[in-house]
Amino acid sequence: MQLNKENILIVDDDLHILELIQRHLHRWNYHTYRAVSVKEAVNILRDSQVDLLITDLKMPQIDGFELIKFVSEHYPDLPKLIVTGFPSVQDSLKAIKSGVAEYLTKPFTRDELEEAVTKALSASRAKPKKPTQPVQRDAYGEIIGSSEEMNEVLEVIDRVKDNKATLYISGESGTGKELVARAVHYQGKFAAAPFVPVNCGGIPETLLEAELFGYKKGAFTGAEKDRKGAFQSAQGGTIFLDEIGNASLAVQARLLRVLQEKEVTPLGSHKPEKIDVRVIAATNNDLAEMIRKETFREDLYYRLSVVEIHIPSLRKRMTDLPLLVDKFLLKYGLEYKDRYLKIEPEALEVLKRYSWPGNIRELENVVQRAVIMCDKSIQVKDLPDHLKYAIDMPEDTLTSLAEMEHKYIKKVLRATGNNKTKAAEILQITRKTLREKLKD
Question: What is the per-residue DSSP string for 148-209?
Answer without folding.
Answer: HHHHHHHHHHHHHTTS---EEEE--TTS-HHHHHHHHHHTSTTTTS-EEEEETTSS-HHHHH
